[in-house]
Amino acid sequence: MNELIKNLGVIVLLIGVVILVVPFFTGGMTNSILLTGMALTIIGYLGHIVINKRME
């Protein structure tokens, strides 16, 4: 469980990337999809930094 929490930021980051990649290939890009993917990518990146600082 501790390992999952340590990798939670990376998992959220990858979900954000998938949200951005899938519509790119299917051609269904909208602003809401772009904003959601960007927000999850940034939250995952910052979450990874914060979680790993506290776990050390």
Account of the 3D structure:
The chain crosses the membrane at residues 7-26, 32-51. Keywords: Membrane, Transmembrane, Transmembrane helix. With 56 residues, the chain is mainly α. It has 3 helices and no strands. It is elongated and about 40 Å long. The two termini are 16 Å apart. The model has no long low-confidence stretch (mean pLDDT 92).
Q: Which range best describes the helical content: under 10%, 10-25%, 25-40%, 40-55%, 55-70% or over 70%? A: over 70%
Low-confidence stretches: none
The biggest beta sheet is recorded as: none
**Mean pLDDT rating:** 92
DSSP E strands, number:
0
Shape assignment: elongated
Residues in β-strands, percent? under 5%
Q: What's the number of helices?
A: 3
Please compute the radius of gyration using only Cα atoms: 13 Å
Order of H and E elements: HHH
Q: Assign the structural class, choosing from mainly alpha, mainly beta, alpha/beta, alpha+beta, or little secondary structure.
A: mainly alpha
Head-to-tail CA distance between termini: 16 Å
